[in-house]
Structure prediction request, 635 residues.
Amino acid sequence: MTHQGTLSCTTALTLCLALTVPGAGLAQSNVPCVDAENQACENGEDRGVLAKVMAFLDAGQTPTEAQIEQLNKGELLKLIKARDLDIDPRGMPPEDLRAAVQAELAERTDANAEPAQSEDRERADTGEGVVEELAQALSSSVDEEQAQVETETQADTETETQADANARTGDDTTSGNLEELTRQDLDRMDRNALIEVIRRRDLAIEVQNTQTAELRTSVSRELGLMENSPEQRAEQTGDTLGDALEDAAEGAVDEIRQSLDIGESEREAETDRRRAEEDAAEGEPLAATTDAETDAEAEVTTRTVTEESSRSSDEEFETQLTTGAEATAGTQAQSDDDDGLSTLGKAAALGLGALALNEILGANDEVVTSSRDRVVVRQNGELRVLKNDDVHLQRPGNEVQTSTYKDGSTRTVITRADGSKVITVRAADGRVLRRVRERPDGTRVVIFDDTQQEYEPVNVRELPRPDERGVTYSRNDSAALESALRAELAADVDRRFSLRQVRNIRSVRKLMPPVTLDAVHFQTDSSVIRPREAEDLADLGRQMVDVINQNPDEVFLVEGHTDTVGNASYNLALSDRRAESVALALIEYFDVPPENLVIQGYGESDLAVAVRGPERANRRATVRRITPLLRRAER
Prediction:
């Protein structure tokens, strides 16, 4: 839109061109050069698109379609007036006006190219009329041209919004109206108005060295005012439909996964019920849970843990896992060994107690993977890892006194340098049943106890859906981590569970949110955590310590998981080893009390992503606060 009392683009171009011709009596520096938007030119050079179009016409050439496309409606009207084009612009939208101007210019340029070039050469040679042309322009052209343009554009500008007028004039008092801009409003704006819109709306658009038409397109795009072509609309429709189908597919997958989880959980619950019945059928309580008079019947050993006899999180295990026929053959051969001290000949070699391994296992149980620290057995079609649940408590400098009873149960008392003790009761298969912390003053905190009462079987279908509040641990998201570590059990869960039920039944443990440790990346077949990765667990370690300081009987389940590459039994043992490494890292680097941690590997049985084969998301370690799930004994 033109401004009263200033030079139009056409006149400005004429003046600038005239100044390039040597003239008598008028210095070139006395007449300023202005561009298409009435701004001073840099170094005397015109910058406007309209000026370039006029220069093409003066040279007898037809402007390109791209150049005409860059002109707004006001500039097109100026061009029509300046070249006296046979076009009636009233009521024509900008697109039709551009097409008409392009066609008219092409026709005229072809007819008048040679006369125009001859006239230009004559003017360049003689310089005659320069002063007269400048005077004419300065005295009358501005008023005449501007009045004509404003008359022709009156019909279009009557419908302009107050926001457009504010943008052109820079009136800050009505900036709120800029929210109501339309694409037609932008088409009627000049460069200054567009820049004002960019400033008011804080749009991320580069203004410098950007042509007006390109600026208009950028503003339209940022404000979401671009008119989509049929192809674009079809693409958007396809994207919307695709998103809907993808959401529906994900929902279906979630439902299928939920159903599979329920099925697996029901099978796990049935296995747990059967084992509980088998334990109850024994009749007598485990000797390790009885009073002190039974100590006379126990075999007691005492030792001091050293750096050499304990493992740290950045060390590999001393022995490799063996699977298949090799493990089975080893079990049979070593179970016949008279000394009973070989890897599989006695469960004592695993720290499990005094019974031979074949006394712990049933007639149909099969050893499928083994090492000196773990044995994986198949019991009634289910894989199960046997190991010493106390191993991570035995840190260098601790004195460990273990009482082993004839029924295979054990009671271990670990005494620390500060005089505090941790007392653990384990079943013959190494499974921890009870853990108590005794402070130096003699007061006790029962952390968990599966020995004092019977627990009702789990009906999986009566449980709520899994807790979806789990987080992937990041050092930059302390709030989400804290939320997961302090989550409470859903209000509609009106019961508590045994530690065995939590460890063995996925639908039970998933009632509490997991923290997935994305900072830990294990190498193939390795259980080592590198120091840098351990240090990345700092926020997790500190928050766990804070939670335990507030409630000393807190319990955290440290889980290991693998993908489906390799043997399932091997993966189970490997995942359990890796869970132990995570627990050790939390203990060694951040002083998390080891008695508040329970370690469990799940191998490939609980995939985060339901795919077979290598999958990074399935090779994970997690920490889950399970305190609300446990029914604790009376203090």
